[in-house]
Description:
Shape: globular
Largest sheet: 8 strands, parallel, barrel
Oligomer: single chain
Number of strands: 21
Strand order of the largest sheet: 5-6-7-8-9-10-11-12
Helix content: 25-40%
Distance between the termini: 39 Å
Amino acid sequence: MKRFALKRHLALGMLALATSTLSAQKVSIYTTTENDTWRKSTTSLSAKSTAKTVVELTGTEKGVPFRAWGTTFNELDWDAFNLLTRKEQDELMHNLFAPDGDLHFTHGRISMNANDYARAWYSCSEVNGDFGLRYFNIEHDKRNIIPLAKAAQHYYPELQLFMSPWSPPAWMKINNDYCVLSNKYNQQDPRKDYLLYTKPEDMGKTGSENSQLDPDEMKLLGDRNGVFPRRLALQDYFIQEPRYLQSYADMFCRFIELYREQGLPITKVMYQNEAYSYTPYPGCAWTAEGTLRFNNEYLAPTLSKKHPEVELWIGTFNTNRLDYVEKILDDKTLQKNIKGVGTQWECRNNLPEMRKRYPNLRFMMSESECGDGSMDWKAGEHTFFLLSDNLGNGCDEYYNWNFILTDNGMSTWGWTQNALVQVDSKTNKPRYTAEYYAYKHFSHFITPGTEMIAYAGRSYEKTPLVIFKDKQGKLIITAGNFTDAPSSMTVKIGKKYLEVNTKPHSLNTYCVE
Length: 513
């Protein structure tokens, strides 16, 4: 009887202790506004709700385990990086890549051949007809891209890379040029532009409406009238002949080998960046049929034979034409060959449906939107929303685009973009932008294995809220407020409530210990 009373007393004591701990549960809050970054405060869970409950947690939720944060290594980033002092360079790379830094990046993205933030066009294979790759090399990368990746690797030795080309060597394309369409920033003959919307069987015809181009197709701002691209390419710009296709697959493997010799492991590849951007800069239009042919018949078997340790992903998909994405992803052979899907830009709109339709595939946000060169607070809010929506819809890797640029981020091909760090080219002084802090509010806390367990949804676009749970069971709640007024909402956690009260135009992270 005494033993039973003792056990009952101990049980009641433990229950009281648990109840007391829950009621006093500590919550750390990190807040960033335009003029006050990373301000820390504390609160606690409450017994009652005073605002609308947007998410209820029972403690049994399972979600998508997060894998990795990354950024991109580009030539123009390298140029901006070299304007900094050695001390500033070390501080930046520590902040981005060190385990005890701010952003915890562990992956990098690179391109085979030039991308749109190169100084000019170059490729690893400049000898026309070199199908045997006798003259294939990465000497250009050794001078510009690899040193930047090495600077990151110094702070994170296990750095991994994923690679996708923007354009094949020009001699492997039907227009014999690195771009898709002509403009004042490249040298392509405008008479070649009709190729894009002309079927191969109609090549000899003139006056067809298929040759009419849309001059606004590549505008980077706004929603591009809701559909992108409004018209799809009617033929592959990559030459669809076996020796070209096989040589190109061999190039991927040779590129992997040469980077490995430099101590930089490439662990993922994708066949093409943005096959649906018909660009005046390095690019390549592919049809669904060409995409499946190259990946299934050439790249997948060649990669499996020569580099089985490297994952093949499909992408990067940058179109909200879901029917066209499904035309590719529904292919059963492709599903067996790929590990996951790289999505960016408009394809974000497809994520909820794609995750339902392809539950066995992983999803990566392969390039966060690049902005317009403003590098202002509004850009930080937009990036915070993109982080919320892509992660909330199940992407388990997330890649930033440019991490450092000068001034307004002017590209070689005539437009401006944003970066996490802006360097004044007159003073050489760096400034950490609002987008840097947008990333920090997520990546500083969301480590590999942390699960995304709830998303308030797109109806809260101006006040996005996402909930994560780390391996220790700690909750991480990201909440933005892009309005001119304070915002209040509630997350129910068991029988308690977290009051998410945010300032106007603020970025916030709540950590429930």
